[in-house]
């Protein structure tokens, strides 16, 4: 009855790890149950709200739709990896300074998508920001503040990398 | 150590939220993500019919599935809770359906398993047979009482303002609120012009991105419930009542909420989680999926028939309001929505003769409750559309017409309560100024037409309600606040800490705000209706002031000279010979209130009035009916903002949420079955829906009886947006929509009808 379990090996937040996953396990469930990481969380369950966003080989992925087994051999980064040394990432800092959240449930997803955006477009224009963040929903609708935060994060990330 | 002499200035400071770091790092706690050792997961089997008698429930296949711990129905629940009915206004909602089901999606049975996938799979193997009964879905039809949802109504008596509700039979009307001021019939008889319109609103819902979740851990000597609840004190009272226990054996812990908007108020999953944990004798977690919200709680759909009589000078001399609220299968807080919104159904206008009838109705739909405005957005939708239509019919400028009839401080509102601290005219003027209302406006000539519109609103905050707070100064001078207000994103922890800091002259960042835990945080009526900043704010202020007084007493007792700058830590050390002791201040706040008489009149309906309005500029594509908001303005009277940045975010967020309810959100229902119960089919506003220009303004005011001059803000920007857009649509293309949402299809149909080329039915 119980489907076959498979062992996968991948890099999670900079460390090599292994996990035993079943075919139906998605990335969120695996991160929560096997690694106690709750920054990526399931909300809509359909890949529409972005609350479950993680980076796989640098690309943003909806962790509620992406099957855990697909992670074999990849490099996975979650929101927990951004401030490991105790210092916030410029994206996180900008979200705080711009008041770019209210309840905070969607925030890790927005932060990770913003990381992906700035990685691809270090100086994003409004259209690129709206394009990248169109897959993330914020029911508190802090969108204007989020747009400001993305711009601030891009500025500060650039300053950080050149300085 | 915290110095006692830091400069004040906490009020009016745009301090970033205290919990910001936890939220951006993904470490903030939410019930939906919590786990307890030994915990079982519950999955719910729900009714597939809108109204029916349960003939049988077959749980055998589910029970036999490997990994299933137990399957329960109401027969099991009644073994542990004899009268398993709950609710804030009526004890009408069964923990699991008993005998009958009353809406599609009603919980009928539950599977428990340690693996949620197993529980889910098993729940899908349960079947039930029903004798289907006639069902009623429309609120106006429900008022005819031809099809009855409940055999008998069961009022509760928990809240002071709902005590008058009495049990009734043979009716779907849970509450009828009635207000009679002056003589409307006489006034209509002499009116120079009479206008009557009917407006409707659709069924929409909160959809916080953290769906409802509760974990109950029942022991013989007490129960702990972790819950995504907006009112932990109410949950405790209700669970204690169900168990027949004193309240101190019931502990409700509430971490941060991933959104609430009214959807997590009162009691939702907590009663079921309690019963399941009692039966299983293990901790049980119920964590809803997004789809399940559609079967839990929604906003009230409404029908509002409004009639106004005007004298020859254009003064409104009479207004008759009839409002039907579609409460769904269980009352939840519908009766309060009906009554409290009923107070202001006639709008922010000075009208001598007013008649209001507001009906809370049962129907065979998902229950309806509070959603960011307690019914007021539905009322404003009607009365501000109506007001604009009158102005247009009389060829009057909508701004001047409103100003001629506006309610002003010192004048009695419909209830008879004298208006005070309401910047209605100021709000209206600021919207008009921002819209350059007096200047000519280019409406365009081609396919794209432009229009502008605005609306203004008044709401009475719910009353009477109580808040209690404790401020505890430790021996090193550091200070802790115990307050039951639930921070669900509105920034209350930060604002409350600022108030403590202001009184005790310490930075808000240094004040620890204890997360909600009924074993620790004292009573609060609930985080709802924009009441917390005012009521809990006062309690917090009083608690901090008492602590400050006690600190002063200690200084004198220790012989400290006037103006001594001895730190708090020095005082404690001097008093107790070491770092020891506490200074505790408590604050309790309950405003005065006079309940309405048989005519709905009272000289004290509310401790404060909420005032807000919106203005928009739009473009309408006449070939598709598509409406694009190019400029969105929100202006509100929030008193003195405690934290201006958070106030702005609240105005902006509420307005964008209302934009969804205005433009596209709608639960599609077919024979009682919701057909779009997912984010794939039910669209909520995303980043592309944000208008290119958005302006939010808190006008310069001071609430004379507010804490530090402040009052509530959470709901304000939801009030005026829907009618502002409808008014702008008529301004642009000359068609009037009277039903929400204002979709491209609705606009296009109206355009075709206007051109005498109506489209056929859908």
Summarize, please:
By secondary structure, chain A is α+β, with helices and mostly antiparallel strands.
Helix percent of chain A reads 25-40%
Number of domains of chain A: 2
Give the chain pair forming the largest contact, with residue counts. A-B, 52 and 56 residues
CATH-scheme architecture of the largest domain in chain A = Roll
Q: Would you list the SSEs of chain A in sequence order as H and E?
A: EEHEEEHHHH
- Biggest sheet layout of chain A: 5 strands, mixed
Classification by helices and strands of chain A: alpha+beta
Distance, first to last CA of chain A:
58 Å
Describe this structure in words.
The complex is a heterodimer of chains A (163) and B (762). With 163 residues, chain A is an alpha+beta fold. Chain A folds into two domains: 6-79, Roll (Ubiquitin-like (UB roll)), CATH 3.10.20.30; 90-162, Orthogonal Bundle (DNA polymerase, domain 1). Chain A contains five helices and five strands. A five-stranded mixed β-sheet of chain A has the order 2-1-5-3-4, sandwiched between helices. The termini of chain A are far apart. Chain B is of the alpha+beta class and 762 residues long. Chain B has three domains: 20-29 and 465-589, Aldehyde Oxidoreductase, domain 4 (2-Layer Sandwich); 34-133 and 206-293, Aldehyde Oxidoreductase, domain 3, CATH 3.90.1170; 302-462 and 597-754, Aldehyde Oxidoreductase, domain 4 (2-Layer Sandwich), CATH 3.30.365. The chains are: A alpha+beta (163), B alpha+beta (762). At the A-B interface, helix 2, helix 3, helix 4 and helix 5 of A face helix 1 and helix 17 of B.
What labels describe this entry?
heterodimer; A: alpha+beta; Ubiquitin-like (UB roll); 5 helices; 15% strand; globular; B: 762 residues; alpha+beta; Aldehyde Oxidoreductase, domain 4; Aldehyde Oxidoreductase, domain 3; 3 domains; eight-stranded mixed sheet; five-stranded mixed sheet; 19 helices; 28 strands; 26% helix
């Amino acid at each position: 009855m119980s489907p076959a379990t498979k062992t996968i090996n991948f890099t999670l937040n900079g460390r090599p790890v292994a996990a035993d996953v079943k075919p139906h396990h998605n990335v969120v469930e695996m991160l929560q149950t096997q690694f106690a990481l709750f920054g990526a969380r399931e909300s809509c369950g359909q890949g529409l709200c972005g609350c479950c966003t993680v980076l796989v080989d640098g690309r943003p992925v909806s962790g509620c739709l992406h099957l855990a087994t697909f992670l074999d051999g990849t490099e996975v980064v979650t929101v927990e990896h951004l401030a490991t040394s105790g210092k916030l990432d410029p994206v996180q800092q900008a979200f705080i300074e711009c008041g770019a959240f209210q309840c905070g449930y969607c925030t890790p997803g927005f932060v990770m998508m913003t990381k992906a955006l700035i990685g691809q477009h270090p100086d994003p224009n409004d259209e690129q920001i709206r394009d990248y963040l169109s897959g993330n929903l914020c029911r508190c609708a802090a969108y204007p503040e989020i747009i400001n935060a993305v711009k601030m994060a891009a500025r500060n990330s650039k300053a950080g990398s050149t300085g | 150590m915290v110095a006692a002499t830091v400069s004040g200035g906490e009020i009016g400071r745009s301090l970033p939220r205290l919990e910001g770091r936890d939220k951006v790092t993904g470490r903030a706690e939410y019930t939906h993500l919590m786990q307890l050792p030994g915990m079982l997961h519950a999955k719910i089997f729900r009714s597939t019919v809108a109204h029916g008698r349960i003939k049988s429930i077959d749980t055998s296949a589910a029970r036999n599935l490997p990994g299933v711990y137990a399957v329960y129905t109401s027969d099991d629940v009644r073994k542990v809770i004899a009268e398993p009915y709950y609710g804030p206004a009526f004890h009408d909602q069964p923990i699991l359906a008993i005998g009958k089901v009353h809406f599609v999606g009603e919980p009928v049975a539950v599977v428990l398993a340690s693996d949620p996938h197993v529980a889910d799979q098993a729940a899908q193997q349960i079947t039930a047979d029903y004798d289907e009964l006639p069902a009623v879905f429309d609120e106006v039809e429900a008022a005819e009482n031809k099809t009855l949802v409940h055999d008998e109504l069961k009022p509760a008596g928990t809240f002071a303002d709902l005590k008058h509700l009495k049990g009734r039979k043979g009716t779907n009307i849970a509450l009828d609120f009635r207000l009679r001021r002056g003589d409307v019939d006489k006034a209509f008889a002499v009116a120079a012009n009479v206008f009557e319109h009917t407006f409707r609103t659709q069924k929409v819902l909160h959809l916080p991105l953290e769906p409802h979740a509760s974990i109950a851990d029942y022991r013989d000597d007490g129960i702990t419930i972790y819950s995504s609840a907006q009112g932990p004190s109410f949950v405790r009272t209700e669970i204690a009542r169900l168990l027949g226990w004193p309240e101190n054996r019931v502990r409700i812990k509430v971490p941060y909420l991933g959104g609430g908007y009214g959807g997590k108020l009162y009691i939702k999953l907590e009663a079921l989680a309690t019963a399941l944990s009692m039966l299983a004798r293990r901790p049980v977690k119920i964590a809803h999926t997004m789809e399940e919200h559609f079967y839990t709680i929604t906003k009230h759909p409404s029908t509002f028939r409004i009639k106004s009589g005007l004298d020859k000078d254009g003064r409104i001399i009479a207004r008759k309001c009839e409002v039907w609220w579609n409460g769904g299968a269980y009352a939840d807080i519908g009766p309060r929505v009906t009554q409290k919104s009923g107070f202001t159904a006639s709008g922010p206008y000075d009208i001598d003769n007013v008649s209001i009838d507001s009906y809370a109705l049962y129907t065979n739909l998902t229950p309806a409750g509070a959603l960011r405005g307690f019914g007021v957005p539905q009322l404003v939708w009607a009365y501000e559309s109506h007001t604009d239509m009158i102005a247009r019919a009389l060829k009057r400028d909508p701004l001047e017409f409103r100003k001629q009839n506006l309610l002003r401080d010192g004048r009695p509102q419909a209830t008879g309560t004298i208006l005070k601290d309401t910047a209605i005219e100021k709000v209206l003027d600021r919207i008009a100024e921002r819209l350059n209302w007096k200047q000519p406006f280019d409406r365009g000539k081609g396919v794209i037409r432009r229009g502008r519109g605005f609306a203004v609103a008044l709401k009475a905050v719910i009353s009477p309600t109580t808040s209690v707070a404790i401020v505890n100064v430790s021996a090193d001078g550091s200070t802790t606040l115990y307050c039951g207000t639930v921070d669900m994103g509105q920034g209350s922890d930060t604002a409350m800490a600022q108030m403590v800091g202001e009184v005790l002259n310490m930075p808000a960042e240094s004040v620890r705000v204890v997360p909600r835990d009924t074993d620790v945080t004292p009573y609060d009526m609930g985080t709802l209706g924009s009441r917390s900043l005012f009521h809990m704010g006062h309690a917090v202020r009083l608690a901090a002031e008492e602590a400050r007084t006690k600190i002063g007493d200690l200084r004198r007792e220790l012989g400290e000279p006037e103006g001594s700058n001895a730190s708090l830590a020095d005082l404690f050390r001097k008093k107790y010979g070491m770092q020891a002791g506490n200074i505790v201040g408590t604050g309790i706040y309950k405003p005065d209130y006079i309940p309405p008489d048989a005519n709905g009149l009272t000289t004290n309906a509310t401790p404060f009035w909420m005032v807000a309005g919106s203005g928009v500029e739009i473009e309408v594509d006449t070939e598709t009916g598509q409406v694009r908001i190019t400029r969105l303005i929100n202006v509100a009277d929030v008193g003195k903002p405690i934290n201006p940045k958070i106030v702005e975010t609240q105005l902006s967020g509420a307005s964008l949420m209302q934009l969804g309810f205005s433009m596209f959100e709608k639960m599609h229902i077919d024979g009682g079955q919701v057909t779009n119960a997912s984010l794939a089919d039910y669209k909520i506003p995303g980043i592309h829906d944000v208008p290119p220009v958005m302006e939010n303004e808190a006008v310069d005011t001071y609430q004379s009886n507010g804490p530090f001059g402040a009052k509530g803000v959470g709901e304000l920007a939801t009030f005026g947006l829907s009618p502002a857009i409808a008014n702008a649509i008529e301004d642009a293309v000359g068609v009037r929509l009277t039903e929400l949402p204002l979709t491209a299809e609705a606009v296009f149909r109206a355009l075709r009808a206007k051109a005498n080329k109506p489209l056929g039915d859908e």
